[in-house]
Amino acid sequence: MVNAWGFGPTTKNTLSKTQVDSLLQLVNYKKVILKDNQIVKVNPEIKIDFNAIAQGYSVDVLADFLERKGINNYLVELGGEIKAKGKKENEEWKVGIDQPTEEKSPERKLEAIISLKNRALATSGNYRKFYIEGNQKLSHIIDPKTGYPAKHNLLSTTVIADDGITADAYATAFMVMGIKKIDCFFRKKTKT
User: Fold this and answer.
1) Which among 21, 164, 178, 179 could disulfide-bond with 60, CB atoms 3.0 to 4.6 Å apart, if both were Cys?
2) What is the pLDDT of residue 80?
């Protein structure tokens, strides 16, 4: 679906409702199973896209490598996904979070600076990878239920977790969900 909208190695594309509905038949994690240590796709046309967790996972791999080498103070950053451990010159690591903006500008401002100690951080947003078609903003974050770019008033979400892959996955999921569903998600989590 991401490729069809022109956010993969393809170019910008306009999809009809029929095309979206047709492609949605291939979007469902339940149509991909693990059998005898092999990934089996119910339909060979299904493609697996790890982009929502790839950078977070890569940060974890690099952090694990550093720890195996006995390095206890580090900050690993790939494309905005970060994992920090220990300290930098006896101070906690300081991490800037970009201020999301609707304007395409080469100038980047910070929304916040936080201390990050032995945690990972990921930010997902729709303010960098998008295009305008007519009067609509189409973002690279696709809602797997509708097949269309996620639409709501969030520009970005930042998540702090124990590892990069978890932070990255939740940040992307929250961008798809929107603020109301995120609120419901946390209300359910606190009840259990």
Assistant:
1) 164
2) 84
